[in-house]
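Follow-up to my post from last week.
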Amino acid sequence: MSQSELPKIYDPKKVEDKIYKIWEDSGFFNPDNLSDRKEKYANILPPPNANGELHIGHASGYVTMDLLGRYNRMLGKKVLLLPGKDHAGIQTQVVYEKKIKKERGISRHDLGRDKFYQEIYDFCIDRSQYMRNQEKKLGLSADWSREKFTLNPNLVNIVLETFVQMYNEVDNEGNRMAYKGKRIINWCPRCASALADVEVEHEETTSKLYWIKYGPFVLATSRPETKLGDTAVAVHPDDDRYKDMVGKKYMIPGVLGEFEVLVIADKEVDMSFGSGAIKVTPAHSFTDNEIAIRHRLPSRQIIDESGKMMANCGKYAGMSTKEAREAIVTDMQKMGLIDHIEDNYIQNLSVCERCKTPIEPIPSEQWFINVDHKNFSLKNEARKVISNEDIKIHPASFKKIMLNWIDNVHDWCISRQIWWGPRIPAWYKDGEIKVQLDSPGKDWVQEEDTFDTWFSSGQWSYTTLEYPEGKDFKDFYPSNNMIMGRDILPFWAFRMIILSLYKTKQIPFKNLYFTGLIRDEKGLKMSKSKGNGIEPLEMIEKFGTDAVRLSVLIGSSPGNDMNLGETKIESYRNFVNKLWNISRFVIAKIGANVTEEKIDEENLTSADKWIISKAKNLITEVTTNLEKYNFSLAGEKLQDFTKNDFADWYLEVAKFEDNQTEKNIILKKILEDLLKLWHPFIPFVTEEVWSNLNKEKLLLIEAWPTLESWNEISDKNHDTESHIFIKTQTIITAIRNLRAENKIEPTKKVKAIIYAETNFDELKNNEILITNLRTGISELILAKSGEKPADAIYTIVDGIEIYLISEVNKEKEQQRIQEELRNLTKYVAGLEQKLNNVEFIKKAPSQIVAQEKEKLASVKLNISEIKKHLEKLE
RNA sequence: GGGUGUAUAGCUCAGUUGGUUAGAGCAUUCGCAUGACAUGCGAGGGGUCUCUGGUUCGAGUCCAGAUACGCCCACCA
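User reply:
Got it. Predicted complex:
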């Protein structure tokens, strides 16, 4: 193999698609084709919503999952990364409704339920195809033959069965785990659907605050139209202003005549708000409803599910709440019932997460999951597996957040009044309800509502594995790592845990890893409207997948947000190119084959011993950091070794030392190890280089490097001997530094004298390195000691004196050396203080004390030599 | 209001069970056609580790408090 075959600059575009195809064709993404392996490993990949495209946040998650998958595959496990897509109920329906409105000017009602469903289905299948290609572009080593969609019939079946099972879960008081109930729910008038708490957003808005005359009260409200549904006035129990009125009934004049309210005392009331008295509308406010339940107040619904005033609202019937508010305020003003109006009242308005329409709290018949059922308390069971770490959470700090969230969870409203999604298998006839998969017979009408999307995706961990009889379920459940963005923790992780525990009686996964969010360079959330998003495909096109992968893997820590800009991706593009060139050099140097397998230890130089020891250490560090989910740290260690140790030092050394046989063995081994260690991070470039090494197997399924694999080459421990090379490095750096500081022309060669004292014997063999590694030395005299020239640029490191014979500007040289002296003196003072402290000597570990003493002695020696040199200069 | 997190170089962040003169990348300064790479190489500059107290022989690291910023949840009629 000649070096000329490999281009100088690595071009990902020419490589990535080709490599991906080789991987796919190999079949090794499918664990069935890794039949000789025993230990199983699975990550079920979170399904993105099949209605759009992948953004950089998805990319970050997938890259992390792929990293784990590839790492474990190289550890010799039978690895399954199982991909899929989510139908994303409300979101997709909204997206598609907008689309047909825009493109065809029609609504879902024009199409009818069945046609509409079919069209969205086709739309999702189409988007899935597109997104699958994006995932492949990222290098995701997933088994596409197992890809799932939340609406695949067999998955839906399992989901429906779960619901039936929960309906049939009845405690001794007759309460079902899945039940239908009338509750105040978040109602989106535009979507005409109930929303879960998590689907509601709170926007700060400016509105009006109306101070209204209310019988004996004056009270403040932002929603005067709800006065028609009032049944009480509430005050704080400690509020002296109203003490005498509590428990009494008053007739209140209103726009539809007088009505009666009861005055009650409740701790929920904030005495400092308005006049301290509030009107209570149990049917259209969550807090009011709670107060009403506590005080057994009657409830009076006045707003219906279309957001309009109901028939019981007299002349206001049929108006929207907004229209009604204006009309009622006008009428109240006429009647003199408005005290005054505050214009700039800032309140948190609840809006629909999907369409931003203000939500109406209304009482409605909905299906719920009781999360604290007597037979099986979902929240308690979930709490248990998290607090005792059956499911380990990474980063650990998220455990607290998770537990806190579980403690505050309410019953889960799972019905949605939309068409897109699995329809709830409840059947009605003459006021009777049956819950079962198939229609009970003629004249039974199925529930119109569909399931909340999370009811499907919450079962993703086992539906994808074909629960309960599927081979995959038996082989791979529970899966190893579940990875998701920290923003969907409450939505998804909790639901998967409770549903899995209930249905399979097992945890869904052993580890739960949260990635942070990716923000733009300035730390702002990326969004389409701001146009500050980083498009993964665009970046891949520009810098290559490997660069994109590194940019999301390094410099981030679990659960913490990360700022990402194009320059970061570019810098990793540069690094990938560096690795490419390192490989080129090594391949060129070692030639096609290295026949020797075992090193003759006698022929090793100190540089060899140093790099071997570093390389071994690297394997340990990368492996332990990956095991500890410190992906970033593992990557940084690799980067540091690759660039600073291997390229900047060892490759340079290899150009000058002539123990060819040993060098070739070492270079080859380290290159191969590096490719392997890097592979989970940057699979494309590593596989491409690997293909140039005449290997039988793909790097994809190669074995992860181990210390044992080094022992076959060199089983000696070289840690202690590598310090000779470190000393050499120090000398070389010092010489380069001296040259730079004294502005010696790079082309100008100088004579150097080094007095190494006790280090002489060790350094003797490294003369060639000191002379050649960009030190610009024409002649080197290395001795134990000797005559100390005054006309030379001078420094001393670790007691080793260095003289560069060159013209010396005495004044400048004095200044430079005195500066150095000052630094050292300061350092010595600190050390002495520490060592003069009796407590330190007494209490610190002896090892630390010895270390400090050694440092002091060494620096003191340097100082005395520097002083001698200074004297000579004067 | 409840929960939770962050604060280290101009920027983005590492910093493991407390122990090197606190590190990296980007940016910046100086220099360099050098043979794998100018997507490169060599050498620098740049830090009161937010503040105040405490524990300790020793604190960027542990504890308490303060300040600032952030996120999640709940939500005010």
